[in-house]
Amino acid sequence: MENVVLQLSKTTMGTAPEELGTLLLKNYLSVLLSEAYYPSFIIMYAEGVKLACEDSPFLHELQQLQEKGSVILLCKTCLTYFSLLDKVKAGVVATMTDIVTVQRKAEKLLTVA
């Protein structure tokens, strides 16, 4: 199995208006699930950490990906910055060292921008 790492740094996809960007990212994650394409790791940093926290519209998809074997890593510095350390509902809190290690070992690195 290929070691694929997906990176998410925003709460939307693309430079579209926020509503469209949210819909695009939701669809992207749903397609990953429907096609049984599960990244080995999903790294979230910057505003992307909000995707895995309380009240996120993406929790269902992320929790399903996690159940299918994707390891979700959330940047601790980012969670602290946004005061979200106690609001995490999917994934695990990770250091920048953890994130760099996963990126370095990746066979394929996908960034949703």
Description:
There is one protein chain. By secondary structure, the chain is of the alpha/beta class. It has one domain: Hypothetical Protein Ychn, Chain: A. It has four helices and five strands, in the order E-H-E-H-E-H-E-H-E. It has a five-stranded parallel β-sheet. Strand 3 (71-75), helix 3 and strand 4 (92-94) form a beta-alpha-beta unit. The mean pLDDT is 96.
How are the secondary structure elements laid out?
Elements: E1 4-8, H1 18-34, E2 41-44, H2 59-67, E3 71-75, H3 76-81, E4 92-94, H4 96-105, E5 108-112
Parallel strand pairs: 1-2, 1-5, 2-3, 3-4
Helix pairs in contact: 1-2
Task: Describe what is shown at a glance.
By secondary structure, the protein is an alpha/beta fold. Helices cover 37% and strands 19% of the residues. A five-stranded parallel beta sheet has the order 4-3-2-1-5.
Largest beta-sheet characterization: 5 strands, parallel
Task: Tell me the strand order in the biggest sheet.
Answer: 4-3-2-1-5
Helix-strand string: EHEHEHEHE
What's the CATH H-level homologous superfamily?
Answer: DsrEFH-like
**Count of alpha/pi helices:** 4
| Count of distinct structural domains | 1
Structural class: alpha/beta
The unreliable regions are none
- Give the termini separation: 25 Å
Considering DSSP H and I runs of 4 or more, what fraction of the residues is helical? 25-40%
| Radius of gyration, whole Å | 13 Å
CATH architecture level-2 label: 3-Layer(aba) Sandwich
| Total beta-strand segments | 5
